[in-house]
Amino acid sequence: MRGTALPGKSNKAKHKGITMDLSSQRYEDIIHLLYDAVAEPSGWSGFFTSLGEAIDASAIHMLAIDKKHGSLSYSDGFNLPVDGELAYIQKYGSIDPRMALMRQRAPGEWIHCHELFDDDFVARDPFYQEFLIPVGRRYVSGCKVVDDENVCVIFSALRAVGEQPLGPQEVGFLDRLMPHLIRAVRMQLQNYTFSTKALVGHALVNKLRQPVMLLTTDGSVVLANEAATRLLASTSLVSLADGKLMLPAGYRDTFRAECERLEGLARGGDTPADEVSEYRSLPIAAPAAPGLAAETLYAFFTLLVPPRVSGAFGLRPLVMLLFYHPDSAPPVDSDLLGAAFNLTPAEVRACRLLGEGLSTKEIASRAGIQHDTVRKQLQAIYRKTATNRQSELMRLMLNLPLNAFD
Questions:
Q1: What is the 3-state secondary structure (H, E, C) of the chain?
Q2: Which ranges carry the HTH luxR-type domain (predicted)?
């Protein structure tokens, strides 16, 4: 369905008491806003608002699906209620019947839901009955903007319950705009997929000795460093299945609910940044087998928030999850310790074994030396490191620069 705004004629129409503006001048203004947004991402809000008002849409929505992770990675638009969009992102997007049809079409090829789904379908479909209609929306006209091996970006314009679907003039206006929107999105494709580079250095995470994962808020694993991969092989308390993080049932529900809550706070924009980004802890314990100690894994997580998420829609945040497990505790950096404090190889060995949790008697047994020799080594270490007891020495070793890196 195509059409154009005719020069020299009025292209302003009345709809539900609001004036649409499909004039050539309004079209040119929107084009300028679009390319301004390419240069400065904060300009997308102005573009979506101007376009929504021009075609008298109750909402404009542009979303992206990151194909690598199979998750909705981006959401932005005009007149999108925070609660409604979070519900779509976190739950209802996966059962949206319009989405499957839209993804079958070529970029720029429109679907109009009123032509595909009759009233009987709408009356029994959970997406419409539980989500779309309760948030006041009813009709959508949408199309793919970009669809490649990494991402699918979809644009849609919505009308509310009690309104009429978009007409030929409005769709024609959007048709004229679509080649420009496709070009603009292609110029910024990196902004529509989950980006570890935008939030934390990929190489940095891989070098960390501590097990670290980057996840979407629905648990899809974007990145797991080598230490995390080793941890997965050493414990049954955490695992991966179909690219998602798996925790014991009660812990999984708690973790997922808190991640969703934090994403809601970040998108709401009214919560202090420190509250959103502070670390949460989640001790995960397994019942002890007879005669054995219970296994406990400590998880610490925080939300990594892209600059535009706070107070606006856009690229979704990631969760950074750090683990502590006795079998994955990072070793002492022996070379750095020896160089920093002029320790002998024997003294460095004593520090390393202390860091692994051995007592002085166990160190003597492991090294094949007298207990008194270990005590003398510790006295020399205390003197060289300006510490007085084992607790101070351990604190020093844990805070050595670069101690967390390979």
A1: CCCCCCCCCCCCCEECCEECCCCHHHHHHHHHHHHHHHHCHHHHHHHHHHHHHHCCCCEEEEEEEECCCCEEEEEEEECCCHHHHHHHHHCHHHHCHHHHHHHHCCCCCCEEHHHHCCHHHHHHCHHHHHHHCCCCEEEEEEEEEEECCCEEEEEEEEEECCCCCCCHHHHHHHHHHHHHHHHHHHCCHHHHCCCHHHHCCHHHHHHECCCEEEECCCCEEEEECHHHHHHHHHCCCCEEECCEEECCHHHHHHHHHHHHHHHHHHHHCCCCHHHHHCCEEEEEECCCCCCCCCCEEEEEEEEECCCCCCCCCEECCEEEEEEECHHHCCCCCHHHHHHHHCCCHHHHHHHHHHHCCCCHHHHHHHHCCCHHHHHHHHHHHHHHHCCCCHHHHHHHHHCCCCCCEC
A2: 340-397
CATH hierarchy code of domain 24-194: 3.30.450.40
209-287+295-324 has the same fold as 24-194? yes
Residue 80 is predicted with a pLDDT of 85
Which CATH entry fits the domain spanning 209-287+295-324: 3.30.450, 2.60.40, 2.60.120, 1.20.5? 3.30.450
* Bridge partners, 77 (sequence order): 61
- Higher-confidence position of 16 and 166: 166
10: tokens are 């009025």
Q: Is the pLDDT of residue 202 over 60?
A: no
pTM, rounded to two decimals: 0.60
Which top CATH class is 334-399?
mainly alpha
Mean pLDDT of the region 247-264: 89
14 pLDDT above the threshold of 60:
no
Domain chopping of the chain, boundaries: 24-194, 209-287+295-324, 334-399
CA distances 214 to 8, 112, 119, 243, 390, Å, are 55, 37, 43, 12, 34
Condensed to tens digits (0 to 9), the pLDDT of residues 335-385 reads: 667 777 888 889 988 988 887 778 889 999 998 999 999 999 999 999 988
Q: What is the pLDDT of residue 121?
A: 96
**pLDDT, greater one: 177 or 398:** 177
